[in-house]
Every structure is written in structure tokens, then in C-alpha cells.
Design goal:
Elements lengths: L1 H9 L3 H14 L4 H13 L3 H14 L4 H13 L3 H14 L4 H13 L3 H15 L3 H13 L4 H17 L4 H13 L3 H15 L3 H13 L3 H14 L4 H13 L3 H14 L4 H30 L4 H10 L5 H11 L4 H13 L3 H14 L1
Helix pairs in contact: 1-2, 2-3, 3-4, 4-5, 5-6, 5-7, 6-7, 7-8, 7-9, 8-9, 9-10, 10-11, 11-12, 12-13, 13-14, 14-15, 15-16, 16-17, 17-18, 19-20, 20-21
Length: 368
């Protein structure tokens, strides 16, 4: 049964691995080994709670097995429970100081804690055990990038990742690392190929979609980039980042009416993001002209009268004779805003109110 599970996992067949592992666990429910591989299969199927349950059952049977402690700690690391993961990995190494995965995980924890020196120490232990293991090569590449000061460091990192991918072509972390390294070096076609494969291997892999979109856009493949954005929105419909990418890609392709709902949704979530605000105004202009832009500005001002950006845009659009009224409205709505005070001081100066201008300018400086 173990061979069937391992073969399915190597082939990326999570369902096949899970079916074989479940049969083994049913046949030998008191065997920690069967439960360990059931956990691996659940993890491959991205069912972390089921994987944790299987490992907890295995540890109840064999609480001192280092490989079980390490596997359980990896799940804690995935859940970002760093203290619990560290304790589990330390316990594993206390039982077996040759646990390669434990050293790799401890190094990853150190990187998360921005402690590269500790990460390098754990890497050194890992390299003594197997300096050609794909995850060891991946870790070494990550540390090269973390301390990179020259182009040569980037070249070494890319070479390490290429070796890792040759040895573990179905490891999504390794393939993703290679794709991101290609993207950073500007090898966009290679980056897109590797990132697509990493997404396929790991399921949705939402965190990689943005990088893939960047790689496709850099090659001018806007339609393909939009397809990736659509796929991302399909699995994270309420998240801002996928909708931002889809909206701006619609805009780049000239589909302004289709872009507007996405960009407005992002603006609702990030109401003071200037790039989002600027694109929303541009889209309103493309879809409905100047009047639509003015309505959108009024809506933004009503929602957040103290933010300077919509007031400045409004001042750039209204007729000259309307500027004094807009400035007075802005100052009344945001009397403690440095930008509003500065605009009011300029208006007072133009109108010959020198004393008012001086007071307003002094108040504006005090707000800085």
C-alpha cells in the first residue's frame, strides 16, 4: 500500500493517494505509519484539519517518533503558530538529531522571524545530512536572496533553484521558487511556465496568481493575464487584490464598463488608495464623461470629506468662478486638514485678505 501512496503523491494524484492511505489506515488503525501516510495524503489534498487529526492519532500511539513530531510541527507552521511549531521541531530533534525536515522547518521559521543567522545555522545542519535535497537547495537559494548584494548572488540562487526543480519537478514550493526567481530576473516566459506549473501542483495557489499575471503582462499577453485574474476572482471573490488585477486588466484592454465594478469594489475596501482612486475616476470619465467624474467626486467627498485627493481633483475640474466655493466647502468640511488650510490661505491671498492668508498659512504649517 505504501508504494501505491508514494507513487500517487509523486504523480500529483492526491485523490489516489488518499484512497490508498485510507484503505491502509482502515486495515491497520493502530499502526502509526499508516496514520502518518494518511496525514500526508490529506495534506496533499489540502485538508489540513484531517491531516492534523491523523497525526494526532499517530502521536497518541507513538509520542516519541521524531518523524511524527516533525510532520505535526509542519502543520503548525502552515497555521502560523510559530511557537508551537518550534516546540514540536525541537522535540523531534531531541528524539532524532538527524531529522532533515526539522532543520529545514526551523530555518524557515527563522526566516519568518527575520533571523537569517539562525536560518543559516540550521541550513548548515541540513546540508551535513543531505546537501542535494531539493528543499535544502530551495532554502539555500532563499538565504542567498535574503543576503543578496550582487548580481552573482542572484545567479547562484537561480542555479540552486534550477537544480532543486530538476530533482523535484513536482514539488510546488520548489517550482514556485524557481518561477519567482525567473520573474525577478526578467525571464518572463520561463517565469510564467514555472508559475503555472506551481499553481497546478498546489491547487489554487492564489498567492502565485499575481506573479503569473505580472509575467504574462510583461510579455504583452493581456488576454491570458485576464484569464488568470478571472480564475483568481473565482476562488477569492471577496478579496481586493484579484479584483484589482481583473479591473485594471479590463481597463488596459479597453473594457471600461466591465472594469468599473471591480475597481469600485476595491475602492470601497481601500478608500484612500490613490492609485485605485485615480483609476476609478479615469473609468468614470471613459464610461460617463465629465459629469460622471463630478458625481463620483461628490460621492467620495460625502463618504470621506477630510481626504484631500477628491477635493484636489474637483478643483482641477470646476470652472474658475466655482473654485472659491469649492475651497470654502473643503475648509469647512476639514478645518484641521493641512491641505485644506493651504488651499484656503491661497484663496485668501488672491482675494486680498492678507491677515487671513497669514493665519491660515501658519495653521497649515502647524499641521505638517
Amino acid at each position: 500500500m505504501l508504494e501505491d501512496i508514494m507513487r500517487a503523491l509523486r504523480d500529483g494524484d492526491a485523490a489516489g493517494a488518499l484512497a490508498a492511505a485510507a484503505r491502509w489506515a482502515e486495515t491497520e488503525p493502530a499502526n502509526p505509519e499508516s496514520l502518518l501516510w494518511l496525514a500526508h495524503a490529506h495534506a496533499a489534498a489540502r485538508d489540513v484539519p484531517a491531516a492534523a487529526s491523523a497525526l494526532d492519532r499517530a502521536l497518541a500511539l507513538a509520542p516519541e517518533r521524531a518523524d511524527l513530531l516533525t510532520a505535526r510541527a509542519y502543520l503548525d507552521l502552515q497555521a502560523r503558530d510559530l511557537d508551537k511549531a518550534t516546540a514540536g521541531l525541537d522535540a523531534a530533534l531531541a528524539q532524532d538529531p538527524n531529522q532533515l525536515p526539522a532543520y529545514i522547518a526551523l530555518a524557515q521559521l527563522a526566516l519568518l522571524r527575520r533571523d537569517p543567522e539562525t536560518a543559516r545555522r540550521h541550513l548548515a545542519y541540513a546540508k551535513r545530512l543531505d546537501d542535494g535535497h531539493p528543499r535544502v537547495l530551495l532554502l539555500e537559494a532563499q538565504l542567498e536572496n535574503a543576503g543578496r548584494t550582487t548580481r552573482g548572488d542572484a545567479d547562484r540562487a537561480l542555479a540552486l533553484l534550477s537544480r532543486a526543480a530538476e530533482r523535484a519537478p513536482n514539488d510546488p514550493l520548489v517550482v514556485a521558487g524557481l518561477g519567482l526567481a525567473f520573474l525577478e530576473r526578467g525571464h518572463h516566459a520561463f517565469a510564467a511556465e514555472a508559475l503555472r506549473r506551481a499553481i497546478t501542483l498546489s491547487g489554487t495557489a492564489s498567492s502565485l496568481r499575481g506573479a503569473l499575471i505580472v509575467a504574462l503582462e510583461a510579455q504583452g499577453h493581456l488576454d491570458l493575464a485576464l484569464q488568470e485574474a478571472e480564475a483568481w476572482v473565482a476562488v477569492q471573490a471577496d478579496a481586493s487584490l484579484p479584483r484589482w488585477h481583473r479591473g485594471r486588466l479590463f481597463a488596459r484592454l479597453g473594457h471600461f464598463a466591465a472594469a468599473l465594478p471591480d475597481v469600485e469594489a476595491v475602492q470601497s475596501a481601500l478608500p484612500r488608495h490613490e492609485a485605485v482612486f485615480a483609476l476609478a475616476l479615469q473609468l468614470h470619465g471613459q464610461v460617463g464623461g465629465k459629469e460622471a467624474v463630478l458625481r463620483a467626486l461628490d460621492a467620495r467627498i460625502d463618504a470621506d470629506p477630510t481626504w484631500f485627493a477628491p477635493w484636489r481633483q474637483l478643483l482641477s475640474l470646476v470652472a474658475a468662478e466655482q473654485v472659491p466655493d469649492v475651497v470654502r466647502r473643503w475648509h469647512a468640511a476639514a478645518p484641521d486638514s493641512g491641505e485644506a488650510l493651504e488651499a484656503a490661505a491661497l484663496l485668501a491671498e488672491r482675494e486680498g485678505r492678507a491677515v487671513d492668508a497669514q493665519v491660515l498659512a501658519a495653521n497649515a504649517i502647524a499641521c505638517e
